[in-house]
Design brief:
This protein has about 110 residues and is mostly helical. The chain has one domain. The radius of gyration is 13 Å and the shape is globular.
């Protein structure tokens, strides 16, 4: 069974992330304050803040505004424009799948893919 606190609001699963461990504890555990927020000089991931703190939703897939401006604009600066576009599409699709089947089954489906 996968850890639901590692299922990020943005459609990513923190489990296989190279930063999980010393640099980051996983979005649900650190309440949306991954290592990169300090680099951006913000306190909390804007997606986590909006979804959890403001709208009190489990993840962005449950929001009627997906994909919103925040979702579309927040990306890894190391990615090319094509990679950003693909990342947005993949995360959106994963969030819609998660909405349809629930987080527990979504996590199980990720494990089966590995």
């Amino acid at each position: 069974m996968s850890d639901e606190k590692l299922a990020a609001v943005c459609g990513l699963y923190c489990g296989p992330c190279e930063y999980l461990g010393e640099q980051c504890g996983g979005c649900g555990y650190i309440e949306g304050k991954p290592f990169w927020t300090s680099e951006m000089r913000i306190e909390t991931c804007p997606l986590y803040d909006c979804c959890i703190n403001k709208k009190q939703l489990e993840h962005c897939g449950l929001c009627d505004e997906l994909p919103c401006e925040t979702f579309l604009s927040l990306s890894d600066p190391a990615l090319s424009p094509e990679e950003v576009e693909k990342s947005i599409r993949v995360r959106r699709d994963e969030l819609l799948k998660r909405k349809e089947i629930g987080t527990e089954r979504w996590l199980e489906s990720l494990q089966q893919q590995r």
